[in-house]
Amino acid sequence: MGIMSTANRAYDQALAPKYFGALDGFRGVLAIMIAIYHTIWPTHFNSSDLFTNGPVLVDMFFVFSGFLMFYLYGAKIKTRADGIGFIKRRFARIYPLHFFMLIVFTLYACARVVAHAIGIANYEPGEILPFQPGAVESFGGFISHLTLTHSMGVNDALTFNPPSWTVSVEFWAYFVFVAMLLWARPFKNWHFALIAAGIAVLYFWLSRIKPNMDFHYDYGFWRCLGGFYTGVIAAYLYGKFAPLLLAGQQKLSGRVFGVLASLNEMIVLSIMIVFVIFFPGKAQFFIAPVALLFVLVFAFDLGVISRFMATRPLQYIARISYSIYMVHVLISIFFSIFAERILPGLAGPNWNATEVGGDLLLIPYLATVIFVAHFTYKYVEMPGRKAVLAYEFRPKLRKIFTRQKPGNP
Fold first, then answer.
1. Do the Cβ atoms of 138 and 109 come closer than 8 Å?
2. Distance between CA atoms of residues 187 and 319, nearest Å
3. What digits encode the pLDDT tens for the residues 84-117?
4. Which pLDDT score, from 0 to 100, does residue 396 have?
5. Element (H, E) at 12
6. How much is the pTM?
7. d(Cα 30, Cα 280) in Å, to the nearest integer?
8. Among 171, 168, 177, which residue's Cα sits nearest to residue 69?
């Protein structure tokens, strides 16, 4: 009786709503790493294998998302209305800032055209100005961004705000997720085994047509599904393992359990780093089991690394991570112009001969990214989210489609 009650308490505690501080902290760290990856001037960071092979880490965003969506909504989306509400919440989360940055990048594209027209800027070899034939920034690309279809295979390149390709593919992955919960909800072990087999087949197929995981505008949707459903499986396994882990925690002293948990986290983090650095190319398509292990371990928030990731500065970075992700490219462009055209005159032509100068330039760059992201989070993300959630789309759409033509009875 005592054993059963202990197991039941552990199970209830494991499945109770919680905040995954470590995973959220890693989300912020990944956003900073991507901001560094997209710097154009040479540094010791963006020339290292951890960053040159780093695009595979973008898939961790999809895994985190799949984990959280299934953990939070896997048992809540049961009706069509639930599904519509879920899509609306996710749209409110991603679209306002995406739309704002699309306008900013469009204004920047127009500024480039004007700068060339009045002679401020010079043509670079092979340069095609925005909205000209063959340009990446085209009117069609603008429409695809408006409809979040810009990385669903409709374009031949990344357009306007390049990192937003993940926003495009993940938004449509939400519809697949809702469809699964409404019409093919998994709840048995073999259901999730079938999903795992589908992930394996998907990554194998992608490995046959791509040299590594650094692809986006063409097959990015399928890349997203692989990561997202890896997260779904991680959430399912979390629910299975959590009661066992919590029950075991009660049998060990707090210090011993903490040491074991910290050691486990260090090993798993090391595995992830080794995977990124030493397994480039086709080997990157084995990201699923590595990501699954990573999420499963850090979801429990038990070790010293998890506690570090849950510190206030990193949680702040995590809170504004979507803004960091969306605003950093344009800031990187302006810092690159500064590094190329102004710094040589101030510090000499060899200011970055050893790349130390480039490393130091990262400090004001990242400070600017975080500063701007703070304000876009506060004045674009949050107000935009509230506005979308407060807007009643269904009555408006019903009114539009049921409006009678003039003269009809």
1. no
2. 32
3. 999 999 999 999 999 999 999 999 999 988 888 8
4. 63
5. helix 2-15
6. 0.91
7. 18
8. 177
Tell me the one-letter amino acid at 375: F
| Token couple for 301 | 């928030």
Q: How many CA within 13 A on the CB side of residue 260?
A: 10
To which residue do tokens 């939400």 refer? 174
Alpha-carbon distance of 50 to 55, in angstroms, equals 9
In 3D, which of 94, 168, 53 has the Cα closest to residue 381? 94
Burial 327-341 (b: 16+ CB within 10 A, else e): bbbbbbeebbeebee
Q: Cα separation of 37 and 58, whole Å?
A: 11
- pLDDT (tens digit per residue) in 116-165: 888 787 777 777 888 888 888 899 999 999 999 999 999 999 999 999 99
Q: How far is residue 149's CA from residue 139's CA, in Å, rounded to a whole number?
A: 14
> Residue 133 corresponds to which amino acid?
P
H-helix or E-strand containing 38?
none
Do 339 and 41 touch, CB atoms closer than 8 A?
Answer: yes
**Nearby residues of 398 by Cβ (< 8 Å), 6 or more positions away:** none
- SS3 (DSSP) at 136: coil
| Total residues found in the chain within this entry | 409
